[in-house]
Structures are given as structure tokens and as C-alpha cells.
Amino acid sequence: MAGLRLTFHLAGINNQNFLMRDEQTGTYWQQISGKAVSGPLRGSQLPFVHSDELNFGTWQSEEPQGTVLQDAAEYRFGYARKDWDVRMQRAPTVIDFREHGLKARDLMLGIQAFGASRAFPFDQVIREKLVEDRVGAEPVLLVVGADGQSVRAFRDRVPGVLGAPEFYRVSGNQPGALLMDAATGSEWNFQGCAVSGKIKGICLEPLEVLKDYWFDWRNFNPSTTVYGRK
Amino acid sequence: MTSEMQRTRLISVTVLLTCLALSLTSVVYPIYVIRPFRAQGARELAIALAVLRFRNAAVLISGAAALAALVIYWRTQPGKWRRIFATAGAAFVCVLAALARVNIYELMFHPDDRPSFAAVSRTKLDKDEKVIAIKIGGAARAYPIRNISYHHVINDVLDKVAIIATY
Fold first, then answer.
1. pLDDT value at A217 more than 80
2. Between helices B3-33 and B42-75, what is the axis angle to 10°?
3. Please, where are the H alpha helices in A33-183?
């Protein structure tokens, strides 16, 4: 950023979303948005690196050559249990938005894309396993992985196929196949790539999904809409 | 005591008290506003962050001014207790100048300054442990949430790209 390699520290809190400070310029950055909110680089935006929140088993099978952050021995005693996000649902919040029948710490999957923000109740997505919806005017697809917990989202556009193809879940013939599209009959895996059929090898455009509590998502996305709620 | 000496004493005490108030505000106000489990308004947060940004220089100048005011005050030959209070006040300004260099949040949440990584095959995690996964170029990396939800910020490099992983 600005020709500098920045080193960040957790340096404060803004309505329970962290503020980070970079050592090099002293600028403060909002965690959820990556935007500089105070200091010399105010107004700058850190570019996002696409990320997924997945179960380790799912990621391990996709990336057997990957590397994993290891515990720091001196802090291991303080690490959270693996259901950290669920346990934190009991913690108090300082702001609340009583809209759409949602509680402050309901877990949501937020997508900010195509000039719009939309939140999907996590439990509902897990139950439905496949969600075909729109963010702004664009068709999107939310898919639950075979582990029943990991979720990815994609833009529902396939090169060479008119409109937004309809998908449905299958127990595939091909290893890893989760979906089939009605337009070409191709099978698709959890990474959003066609693994059989005439468009084999084509991948859907992945979308950034933020798993977040409702109060936090709503606070930083005031015009958000919510899937399945009016 | 001459009226000139009285005037000098009044000015030096005023400077000392102003420095004390300025330094105390610089240290306490950001902690008051940016504290966990308190709602932050946009305006007060902007002010608190501006204070954090400029306070190091402000409290240093304030400390120097307080010491200068103390010396001048002593030359007006005040009584023993007044000297003690003035010295304590100036010393407190200097302590606040040191405290202003510490961001309490950077101490509260322990950073992992030297993150280490291992191959998947050498990592023991339950299959249902949640991870934040990224891929840059051909390099894939996972940050276990039980770890990163403690440190919150990991400064990292993957495939020669400097990144920050935060949760």
C-alpha cells in the first residue's frame, strides 16, 4: 500500500469490530472493510484476498500440498475451542438492529458484490444446502459442501450458457461432484468447477462470503437485504 | 513577594495545570471511547483516533513545558508543600507522556509476531475444525479459527505477496 509494506497490529475496537493500526504510517484500518478510517492513508482500501471459511477436512482434501498456521506454544492455553463462533453467540453486544426477526448474534453469510449487500442466515443455508438467489441484479449460488458445514458462493453465470443456469444437488458419478446444471447436464464440484459434461473444466466465478454476526454485518452494511426475509 | 513574582507564579501554575489536563485527556479519552462493550459513535471515535495519532508529540511537548514551568515556579520560592505538589504534578505529566506511547489494546490481544507454518501432512487438526483458507498463485494456506480468533491479526507472506489475515 502506497509503496510500503505494512505491518498491522490490533489497536482498538469500533462497535465490536476491530481496528488495526499499521506500524509504518500509524493509519487505523477497519477490520471488516479493510478501509483506512483515520491517519495519513485515510480513505485507502486494502485489496481483498479471496478466502473461504471451511472445515479442515474439506480444505485438506482440496489442498494436500497446503500449509497451515501452527499454534504459538506460549499462547496455546488461551486458544478457543473449535465451536468458537457458536459459543460467542452468548456474548453481549453494544448495538442491535431489530430487523427481519433476527437476533444480534445470529450467524449470517454476507455477500457484498455487484453494488449491493445481502445476508443469508447461516442455519437456513445449511438446511437448504443449495441457495439460488440474487445479489443486486446478479444471480448467485450458495453451496454447502459435503461436510455439511462449509459454504461457498458463486456468480451463477456459465460462459456460453444463456442466462443463469438452474442447479440442483446430486450424488455425483464423478468424485467430488455435488451439483448438476439443468442447461448442460454437467456435474460440478464444491470448488465451482465442472467435472463432467461438455463444459468440463469451466469454473464459476467465486464470490467473497463473510460469516459474521447479524449486528456487525448490518452495522457496516446498512442497506443490506436478507435472504428469505422481507 | 513582588507583583512580578506573583504573576510569574500564576503563569507557571497555569501552564503546569494545562499540561496536566492535556496529558491526562490524551491518555484517558481514547481508552474511555474505544473500550470493549461500549457503543462507539462515529464522531467521538474519529476524535479518539485523532488523539491517538497526535498525542505522542503533544504529551512530549506537554512534558517539556511542565518541567520548564516547574523550574520557573521553584524560582518564585514557594512553600515546601506547594513545591511538593508542583513537582508531583510535573512528574505525573512525564508519566503520562510515557503511558501515551502504549496502546493498551496492542497489549491486551497478544500478537503472534513470528507465525510458523507446517505442511498439511504434519498438522494435527480435527476434520471439523474450521479454517480460513486462501490461495495465491499455486500456494494454499489455512488459518485455524481457534488460533486466529485469539491473535486476531497475522502478518504473513504467501507466494511473495504480503498479506494480513484477520478474524
1. yes
2. 150
3. 56-62, 84-87, 122-128
The H or E element spanning position B41 is none
Measured CA to CA, the distance from residue B46 to residue B52 in angstroms comes to: 10
Residues B97-116: tens digit of each pLDDT: 999 998 888 888 888 889 99
The residue among B59, B77, B108 that closes a domain is B108
> Nearest CA to CA, how far is B95 from chain A (Å)?
21
B113-155: per-residue pLDDT in tens?
A: 899 999 999 998 999 999 999 999 999 999 999 999 999 999 9
Which residue range forms the structural domain that includes residue B147?
120-166
| Residue B72 shares a structural domain with residue B38 | yes
Whether residue B105 lies within 8 A of chain A, CB to CB, comes out as yes
- The two beta strands, A130-135 and A138-144, are antiparallel
B46 and B102 fall within a common domain = yes
Window A:32-51, CB contacts with B under 8 Å? 37-39, 46, 49-51
The reply to whether residue B49 touches residue A37, judged by beta carbons under 8 angstroms, is yes
Which residue in the set B46, B117, B166 is minimally distant from A69, CB to CB? B117
Provide, as residue numbers in chain B, all residues whose Cβ is less than 8 Å from the Cβ of A16.
36-37
Cell readout for B1 is 513577594
Q: Judge if ipTM > 0.95.
A: no
How far does the CA of residue A82 sit from the closest CA of chain B (Å)?
6
In a domain, B23, yes or no: yes
pLDDT of B39-70, one tens digit each? Answer: 999 999 999 999 999 999 999 999 999 999 99
